[in-house]
Specification:
The complex is a heterodimer of chains A (167) and B (266). By secondary structure, chain A is an alpha/beta fold. Chain A contains 3 helices and 11 strands. Chain A has a single domain, classed as 3-Layer(aba) Sandwich (Cytidine Deaminase, domain 2). Chain B is α/β, with parallel strands linked by helices. The chains are: A alpha/beta (167), B alpha/beta (266). The interface between A and B is medium-sized, with 29 and 33 residues.
C-alpha cells in the first residue's frame, strides 16, 4: 500500500509560520493537521490535510530532555477535534535544516505512543506524523490497526508553483 | 537531463524527472484532448490516464490529432489513438486507457496531479471541477464553440485553470444556473456541433502552457493564466475582463474542507 499526501501551499505556509515562532520555554513547536482521506485505485490512500491546529503555549510541558513535549491538554484538544469532525489527525513538527528531514528516535517513540489514542476516537481513519525541514517534508502513516507505520511516498503541494516531493 | 528533452532544460534542471513522474488525466480525447495529449507526450509527461468512451468516426478526421482513415474503418477507440500517439513519442510513458465515461472509473482521477477537461457540455465541466476540488487537483478546462450570427459565424472558446481553494468556474462567471438549466433542457438534441482543428490547437497549447507554468515555471514570479478567452474571428487569446472584478475574492460556491476526500470514509 502507498500513501500520498496532497495539501495546499497556503496551508504549508501557515504551518511553517506557526512552527517557526519561539516558545517561552520549549525549544521547538508542534501542531496537528486535520485531514480527510480518500482511496486511490488500485492500492493507495490519499491524505488531504485541510486545517492546521496549533498547540497553545500553555499546552506544552517544560521538559528539557526533548525539543517539545505536549501536555495532556494538547492531545485532548486534537482528539476532540478528530472525534467531532470525523477526520484523520497528523502530528506535525519542523527540523531547522535544508533537505529531506526524518524523525529522531524520540520523535518515533512519542508518536508511537499517542497514535493509538486517535483510533479510540476515529478507529477507521489512518493517523500519522509529518516532519518539515526548511524546504522539504517527510511523513509516516499508521493505517487502522497496524502497528508498523508506512512511509509517505509522495507529497504534492498544490499552489503556484506546484511542488512534488517523491520517495 | 534526458537527451530528447535537452532543448527544454530552461524549464529546470530536474524538469525532465518531474515531468516523467507527473500523472495527468485527460478527459475527452476529441479535437482538444488529442492536441493536449500530443503536447504532453512531447514535454515528457510520463503517466497518463485517458478517458473517452467514443471511437473514431469519419467526421472526426477534420480535427482529431493522430487519427487516420484506417481508424475510421476499424472504429478504433479514441483512447487507443491517443495511446499510440504518446507511445510513438515517448515509449516509456505509462498510459492507462479508460474507453468509457470517466464517471464509470472515477476512482482513477484522485491519483492524478493535474486533470485536463476537454468535454462538450457545461454540466460535464462542473462535474469534473467538483471532483477535482474534492481531491485538491488543479483542473484545466478548454472548449470552443461556433455560433451562427445569421450574417456569418463567431468562433470562440476558453481556457480556464480552476485551482482548489481558489475561484471556481461559477466565480469566474463561466458557469451559472441559467446556463446549466438551458443545457439540461436541450439534452439529447445537440446533434453534431461545428468543430475545427485550429482553435482547438490554440486552446490546447494555452492549456499545456498553463500546465508548465503551474508545475515548473521558467520565471520565479510567474503565475499561470486563470481564464483566457479566445476570439477566433480576431485570432486573439486574452485574459478575461471578468478577472479585474474578482481581485481578492474567494470562492463562495465550493464549501472547502467538508467536501474533501471520500464521502463514505467515516
Amino acid at each position: 500500500m502507498k500513501i500520498d499526501v496532497r495539501m495546499s501551499r497556503k496551508l504549508v505556509l501557515e504551518i511553517r509560520q506557526d512552527l517557526a515562532r519561539p516558545h517561552p520555554f520549549a525549544f521547538e513547536r508542534v501542531g496537528f493537521l486535520a485531514c480527510k482521506v480518500a482511496e486511490i485505485k488500485p492500492r493507495s490512500v490519499l491524505v488531504l490535510p485541510f486545517r492546521y491546529l496549533k498547540v497553545e503555549d500553555q499546552d506544552y510541558l517544560n521538559d528539557v530532555g526533548v525539543g517539545a513535549m505536549m501536555g495532556p491538554a494538547a492531545i485532548r484538544k486534537a482528539l476532540q477535534f478528530a472525534y467531532k469532525n470525523s477526520v484523520a489527525m497528523f502530528h506535525v513538527h519542523m527540523h531547522d535544516h535544508y533537505g529531506r528531514p526524518w524523525f529522531s528516535d524520540i520523535d518515533l517513540r512519542e508518536t508511537n505512543n499517542f497514535i493509538p489514542d486517535f483510533w479510540h476516537v476515529r478507529p477507521t481513519f489512518p493517523h500519522g506524523a509529518l516532519i518539515l525541514s526548511r524546504d522539504s517534508l517527510s511523513g509516516l502513516c499508521w493505517m487502522p490497526g497496524r502497528k508498523k507505520p508506512l512511509r509517505i511516498s509522495n507529497f504534492n503541494i498544490v499552489g503556484f508553483p506546484m511542488t512534488f516531493i517523491r520517495e | 537531463m534526458t537527451d530528447w528533452l535537452l532543448r527544454q532544460s530552461f524549464l529546470g534542471a530536474n524538469s525532465d524527472e518531474m515531468f516523467s513522474h507527473c500523472r495527468v488525466a485527460v478527459i475527452g480525447l476529441g479535437g482538444g484532448g488529442s492536441h493536449i495529449v500530443q503536447q504532453l507526450a512531447h514535454l515528457g509527461v510520463g503517466n497518463f490516464v485517458l478517458f473517452d468512451p467514443d471511437h473514431v468516426e469519419e467526421t472526426n478526421l477534420n480535427r482529431l490529432v493522430g487519427a487516420t482513415k484506417k481508424d475510421v474503418a476499424r472504429a478504433t477507440p479514441k483512447t487507443t489513438v491517443s495511446r499510440r500517439l504518446i507511445k510513438g513519442i515517448n515509449p516509456n510513458a505509462q498510459v492507462l486507457r479508460v474507453p468509457k465515461e470517466w464517471q464509470e472509473d472515477g476512482g482513477l482521477v484522485p491519483g492524478c496531479d493535474v486533470v485536463f477537461g476537454c468535454v462538450d457540455t457545461y454540466i460535464a465541466r462542473e462535474e469534473i471541477e467538483r471532483l477535482c476540488r474534492r481531491f485538491m487537483i488543479p483542473f484545466i478546462d478548454i472548449g470552443m464553440e461556433v455560433t451562427d450570427l445569421r450574417d456569418g459565424y463567431l468562433i470562440s472558446g476558453q481556457m480556464i485553470l480552476s485551482m482548489p481553494n481558489d475561484l471556481c468556474m461559477r466565480c469566474l462567471g463561466f458557469l451559472n444556473e441559467e446556463l446549466l438549466a438551458q443545457e439540461a433542457a436541450r439534452y439529447g438534441a445537440a446533434g453534431g456541433r461545428p468543430q475545427v482543428i485550429w482553435p482547438n490547437g490554440i486552446l490546447a497549447s494555452a492549456a499545456v502552457g498553463t500546465f508548465v507554468q503551474l508545475v515548473t515555471p521558467w520565471r520565479k514570479d510567474m503565475k499561470p493564466a486563470i481564464y483566457l478567452e479566445y476570439d477566433g474571428n480576431t485570432q486573439t487569446l486574452l485574459p478575461s475582463n471578468r478577472l479585474q472584478h474578482l481581485v481578492g475574492r474567494q470562492c463562495t460556491h465550493c464549501s472547502g474542507s467538508t467536501d474533501l476526500g471520500d464521502p463514505f470514509w467515516q
